Amino acid sequence: MVWTPLHAKIHRTMRSRHLFERHQRLLVAVSGGQDSLCLIKLLLDLQSKWEWHLGIAHCDHRWRSDSQANANHVENLATTWGISFYLETANEPINSEAAARDWRYQALNAIAQANNYQYIVTGHTASDRTETLLYNLIRGTGADGLQALIWQRPLNTGIMLVRPLLEITRTQTQQFCQDFQLPIWEDSTNQDLKYARNRIRQELLPYLQQNFNPQVESALAQTAELLQAEVEYLEKAAQQLREEAMVWGIGYKENSVTLKLNRRVLQKAPLALQRRVMRQVLQQVLPDAPSFEHIEKLTALITAANRSQTDPFPGGAIAQVQGDWICLK
């Protein structure tokens, strides 16, 4: 085995960030592209040091004419490397990026559960992190959206999703694949400019590199890393404040439950924490993720006059000021 600086970097990253334990079962998501091939090669080479059991999972979205050939290509690689292979194929073509991502994570989670894998490992890079930050910034988001793509997070079933390549750029994974002559499967959809992420990758980032900062990918990825730590701190602080301010009560209507927030407690907190508390509260009562407007109109009740109230939120809930309390019912 050839030990490269990239091997050493990933080995150190996994140890310093405690991404994995020894002797664990890792399910590696492999599309066949350069990032996922770089990832599986690195994990294979490090396997003797960590004594992992590795498996490869491939998700066929059925949105390209060559998707079956792509799946066969990845299966052949798994066979060559002597690794268990799992294929999940969509029942019908998935045509949106968001739907494809949701389906892919559900499929990977199901495979991991069924086959006793503790980790799902993906090849997201610093370049992906940069593109996600720019994509969410353009659409409008807070710090949470800007720090998306974090190193690890638990899935619903307790399986851990891990992204070990977040300090590696796409240029580095391409060079690694060339050095080891890894057979990259070129995804034609990566060139399709109807997808916003492709326009960011092919048009916006090169423009920023040429006209503003040649190292813009690394700079923005570092910004996402800083924001991640700050978001974690703010979320914990907001959770503590919410627990101090919130009580559940029985409403006037039979079997109805009212959520109450103590305005005196909330008024002492900075606006950033007030907004986070309101978002956490709305996440409990709304059918979908709350918008900025939803959060703002609930936050405004912290200092509003008695009997002030909101118009109905999605699902019909209304918030009203009753003395020192904001009541959602």
Please explain how this structure is put together:
There is one protein chain. This protein is α/β, with parallel strands linked by helices and about 325 residues long. About 50% of the residues lie in helices and about 15% in strands. The protein contains twelve helices and ten strands. The strands form two sheets. The protein has a six-stranded mixed sheet with strand order 3-2-1-4-6-5, sandwiched between helices. The chain has a four-stranded antiparallel sheet with strand order 7-8-10-9. Helix 9 crosses helix 11. The longest helix has 30 residues, at about 215-245. It starts with a helix and ends with a strand.
Question: pLDDT average, as an integer?
Answer: 91
Distance between the first and last residues' Cα: 63 Å
Largest sheet: 6 strands, mixed
Q: Helical percent range?
A: 40-55%
Strand runs, count: 10
Strand content: 5-15%
Shape: elongated
Q: What's the arrangement of strands in the largest beta sheet?
A: 3-2-1-4-6-5
Assembly state = single chain
Assign the structural class, choosing from mainly alpha, mainly beta, alpha/beta, alpha+beta, or little secondary structure: alpha/beta
Number of helices: 12
H and E string: HEHEHEHEHHEEHHHEEHHHEE
- Based on CA atoms alone, the radius of gyration comes out at 23 Å
Poorly predicted parts = none
